[in-house]
Amino acid sequence: MAATMKDISRETGLGLATISKFYNGGNVRAKNRKLIEDAARKLSFVPNEFARSLKTKQSRTVGVVIPELGNAFITSIITIMEDQLRKMDYAVIVCDCRSDARREAEAVSFLLHKRVDGLINMPTDTTGNHLLPAIKAGVPVVLVDRLLRPIRGQVSAVVVDNADAAEQGTEFLLANGHRDIGLILGNRSIFTTERRFEGYMNALKNAGIKPRDELIRYGDYTMDGGYNAVKALMSLPARPSALFITNFEMTIGGMLALSELGIKVPEDISVIGFDKLDMFGEIFPNLTLIKQPQNAIGEQAAKLMLELLAGGGEVLPQTITLSTQLYIGSSTLPAR
Amino acid sequence: MAATMKDISRETGLGLATISKFYNGGNVRAKNRKLIEDAARKLSFVPNEFARSLKTKQSRTVGVVIPELGNAFITSIITIMEDQLRKMDYAVIVCDCRSDARREAEAVSFLLHKRVDGLINMPTDTTGNHLLPAIKAGVPVVLVDRLLRPIRGQVSAVVVDNADAAEQGTEFLLANGHRDIGLILGNRSIFTTERRFEGYMNALKNAGIKPRDELIRYGDYTMDGGYNAVKALMSLPARPSALFITNFEMTIGGMLALSELGIKVPEDISVIGFDKLDMFGEIFPNLTLIKQPQNAIGEQAAKLMLELLAGGGEVLPQTITLSTQLYIGSSTLPAR
DNA sequence: TTGAAAGCGCTAACAC
DNA sequence: GTGTTAGCGCTTTCAA
C-alpha cells in the first residue's frame, strides 16, 4: 500500500503537522527537512491528492469546454493553455461538445460534479445559460474567443478584436482598388462571424461602397465550406476581384478550389486568408493573412484563470481584447 | 456551504449508510428513496467526489497522453474516447507532449500524481520507459496507434494493421500496372511509419519489383511535409506514375502540390490517400484512400480501459488489431 | 518551530 | 433495509 504521512511521521519521529507543512512550503528546520526527504524517498511517499482536496476543497483541475477538437485554431489555443496551467500544477479536463448546446450544458454539469476549480469555455450556446450553474456555484469562468452578452460582467473573457481585424483586411483590399470583395464567413450567429461581418461592412461603408449580398458566403469554418463558397463565388456572373476568407480551414479549402479552377493567385484574384501562418510554411509562402495571436489568447486565458483561482472570489471579472495583425504577403495585387 | 450527506440524514431522519447506498445504486425502500431525492433537491446536495475518492481510492479520471493535438487523426480518436469514457462518468485529462519524450514522461508522472485510474497513450518514446512508473503503480495502460515492444504483454493496445494497409494500397496500384510508386511516409522510426514501409516493400517484393529508394519520402505527417515530398517526387527525372500518401495532412499538402504543378489526378498521376473521408467531402469527392477506423479505435481503446478499470487488476492485457479498408474512388487509373 | 487532535464528507463492515 | 461507527490521509487550529 502507498505510504502516508503517518508512515513518514513514524519513520522520522516528527509530527504530522511538520510533515504537512514541509509539503506546503512552510518553515521546517533544515535537519527535519532532510529527515522527511529521506523517509519520503525510502517509502516512495507521494501526498494523496484526494485527502488534500477533501480538506482544501480544491481539485487543482480546470475544465475546458469547446465546440470541437478538430479545428486548428482551437487546438492551438488549448495546447498553450494546458501548458500554462500544468506549470501551476493544474490538470485540464477537455470536453468537446460538438457545437451542440445541450451537450455543452451537460459538459458543464459534468465538470461541476467533478469539482473543477474553474471553467474555460469557447461557448456554443449564445445565451450563456449553460454557465449559470457554474456562476451560481462560485466557480470562476473564462470565456475564450466568443463573448456572451447575457452574462457579461459575471465572467472573464479573452477575445480578439474581430471587427477591427475584418475591417483592416477589407480596407487593405479597398486600398488596392478592389471593390468587389468576396467574404467567406463562418457559421451564422456565431460571435466571431458577426463581428467579422460588421468589420467588412464598416470598411465598405466608410469607402462609400454598396455591399453586394451575393459576395457574402457562409463556409461554416470548414475546409469543405471554404471550398464550396469559393466555387460558388467564382461561378458568379460578376466575379469578385478579391477574396477575404476568415479562418484557417476555409482558407485551405478555398485555395484548393482556386487551384482546381485554374485561377491563379494573385494574378487572377487577390486573396486574404486567416490564421496559422507557420503551418502554411512552404505551401502558401506568401499568403496575405490576418494573424490571430493564438499563443497570447491561450496564455491570457490561462493567466486570467490562475488569477481568479488565486484570488479566492476577490478578483473582478475582466475582458481582454487582443489585436490581430495583418501580415502582408504577395497574394494580393492592385485591382485592374 | 454545500450540503453533505449528514444534512440529508438530518433532513430525512435516515442514517448515513442508507443515503450512501442510495447514491451507489444499492437497495433502498421506495419511500426513503423519494425522501432522499426531495431533501437532496431542497438542499441542492451533490456528493463530494473528493471524499468519495479518498475512500474508494479512485478518481474516476483517465489520463490521455498524445504527441500533439493538432492532428486530425488524433483528435478524432480522442473525441470518441472522451465520449465513451464520459458516459461511464470518467473524466479525461489530456496532455499534449509535442512529440517530445521528456515532456511525455513528465506528463505521465503528472497524471500519476493526479491519481488517474488509467492511462491511454499514443506513445512518443519508443522505449516505453515513460510508462514504467504507471505499470509499477498498477495503473492500467492502453496504447493507441503504436505498439511498444519493450513493454509488450504488460499493457493493452489498440492498433491498426498498418503493414497490411500499406500492402493493400500498394497492391492495388500494382494491379493497375503501376511500377513506379511514390511512397510518402511519416516521421522515421515511428511505429506506423515503419509498418507502412514494410507493407509497401512486401507488396513490391511479392510482385518482383525492385524498389527505387528515391521514390520513398518522409513527410513528417504534416501538410507541409506532404507538399514538399510531392514536389520533390515530381521533380525527379523519372517521375512516379502513382503516389501513395500515408496520412490525412500529407494528403492535403500533396494534392495542393499537384494542383499547383498543374498535374491532374488521375489523368496525369494516380493517387491513394489516407484517412478522413468525410472531411474531404466535396473537395476530393473520389479520392481513393485507406480508411482507418478511427471511431472503432477510439471505442475499443475506451472499452479496453473500462474493462481494465472494472477488472481490478484481474484482467489480462490484450492487443486489438483492427483492419483498414481500401476505399476505391476514382483518383487512380491504370498505368499507361 | 513543532505536536496533538479535530475534522473534511464519504464508504463499508457490522449489527440490528 | 437500515443505522452505527470507524476510518480514508490530509490540513489546520491551538497549545506548547
What are the SSEs and their pairings?
The structure is a homodimer of 336-residue chains.
Chain A (H helix, E strand, L loop, with lengths): L4 H8 L3 H8 L6 H14 L5 H8 L4 E6 L5 H16 L3 E6 L4 H13 L4 E4 L10 H5 L4 E4 L11 E5 L1 H14 L5 E5 L5 H16 L9 E3 L4 H12 L7 E4 L2 H14 L8 E5 L2 H4 L7 E4 L2 H18 L7 E4 L2 E3 L9
Parallel strand pairs in A: 1-2, 1-3, 3-4, 4-5, 5-11, 6-7, 6-8, 8-9, 9-10
Antiparallel strand pairs in A: 10-12
Helix pairs in contact in A: 1-3, 5-13, 8-9, 10-11
Chain A binds a DNA duplex (16 and 16 nucleotides) through helix 2 and helix 4.
Report on this structure.
The structure is a homodimer of 336-residue chains. Chain A has 336 residues and is an alpha/beta fold. Chain A folds into 3 domains: 51 residues, 434 Repressor (Amino-terminal Domain); 133 residues, Rossmann fold (3-Layer(aba) Sandwich); 131 residues, Response regulator (Rossmann fold, 3-Layer(aba) Sandwich). Chain A is built from 13 helices and 12 strands. Chain A has a 6-stranded parallel β-sheet with strand order 2-1-3-4-5-11, with helices on both faces. In chain A, strand 8, helix 11 and strand 9 form a beta-alpha-beta unit. Chain A is elongated. The first copy, chain A, binds a DNA duplex (16 and 16 nucleotides) through helix 2 and helix 4.
